[in-house]
Design brief:
Elements: E1 8-11, H1 14-18, E2 26-31, H2 41-47, H3 63-80, E3 81-91, E4 94-96, E5 99-101, H4 103-113, E6 116-125, H5 135-139, E7 152-160, H6 178-184, E8 188-190, H7 208-217, E9 223-226, H8 233-240, E10 244-249, H9 252-261, E11 271-276, E12 285-290
Parallel strand pairs: 1-10, 2-3, 2-9, 6-8, 9-10
Antiparallel strand pairs: 3-7, 4-5, 6-7, 11-12
Helix pairs in contact: 3-4
Length: 301
């Protein structure tokens, strides 16, 4: 019998907490590992978004140390995941003294070696937000000065073991909203980030991401885990969509925030941004398309 009950958000060390699960129960994990050096979470917990108290770029964790720690955690996630279950990791490249650290690629290599199967890879295009790096090239438009603005992160979808297809005609995506399908069917998802300061957490991902992943990879009643739960995007959407949830975080402030957000209404945009490839126009253009009121799963179809 599992000693750890689901439908909880727990404060504590994620590895120690997961060790209390004695057999596989998790169908899907959705999470974004803590940043390696970009954010000092302890400082943010202490000072919040106070602009005079900079919580960014303060840590000095080595890449190998970071990957060792994160890989160990996802090994434990794999242990508690059912056969054929999934693990979705939202992670981006980092910049260290002008050099890109390809954390998604490095972590993918580690997790494949540890036994995960790479099921899918999605690009999260942030549309309106990202790391501005091209400014110096505007001022110095010479070869070798160019630095691209970083406008994306990866959503890495791993699977435990062979693909185990499940079919429940009571929950089939028949008559899927064709407009929304055009957005989610591609390997690039155009989703604006959460506006700065909107949630009292330094790096929440938008609710559209767990909304889509939970809907696409689980059935109602399945167990959804987030071992870096933070502001509780995953646990909030899991509860809303009728899944069991388990969120872990070592910061009491974020645990309280995530529990509070379980009672808040859904905050999923009713429009999506897509590229319009009009055959009569040579240049594709961005346009917004209505995807309906996504306050119920019925509108997702």
């Amino acid at each position: 019998m599992n000693e750890l009950k689901v439908n909880q958000i727990i404060k504590g060390d994620n590895l120690k907490t997961l060790s209390k699960i004695k057999k596989p129960i998790v169908n899907l994990t959705i999470t974004s590992p803590h940043y390696r050096n970009a954010i000092d979470y302890d400082m943010h917990v202490k000072h919040g978004n106070d602009p005079k108290k900079n919580y960014r770029g303060k840590l000095k964790t080595e890449v190998k140390e970071y990957l060792d720690e994160v890989t160990k955690l996802f090994d434990e996630v794999k242990r508690v995941t059912v056969a054929g279950g999934y693990c979705c990791i939202i992670i981006g490249n980092e910049i260290d003294k002008g050099t890109l650290i390809a954390l998604p690629a490095l972590l993918t290599t580690r997790l494949i070696k540890s036994g995960w199967e790479l099921h899918e890879e999605i690009i999260w295009h942030k549309v309106t937000g990202g790391a501005n790096r091209a400014g110096s090239f505007v001022q110095h438009p010479y070869p070798s000065y160019f630095r691209a603005n970083i406008m994306h992160e990866k959503i890495l979808v791993f699977r435990k073991g062979p693909n185990k297809l499940r079919r429940d005609m009571g929950y089939a995506f028949t008559n899927l909203n064709s407009k929304l399908y055009n957005e989610i069917a591609n390997s690039v998802w155009h989703i604006a980030p959460v506006p700065p300061g909107y949630i009292d957490h330094p790096c929440p991902y938008p609710e559209e991401i767990p909304y889509r992943l939970i809907s696409l990879y689980t059935y109602p009643g399945d167990v959804v885990l987030d071992p870096y739960n933070g502001s509780g995007q995953t646990t909030k959407l899991a509860k809303y969509l009728g899944r069991k949830y388990l969120g872990l975080d070592n910061q009491e402030k974020y645990v309280r925030l995530a529990k509070k957000r379980l009672r808040e209404p859904l905050n999923v945009r009713t429009e999506s941004l897509v590229l319009d490839f009009d055959e009569e126009k040579e240049i594709p253009r961005w346009k917004k398309i209505p995807t309906g009121n996504l306050n119920t799963l019925k509108n997702y179809k």
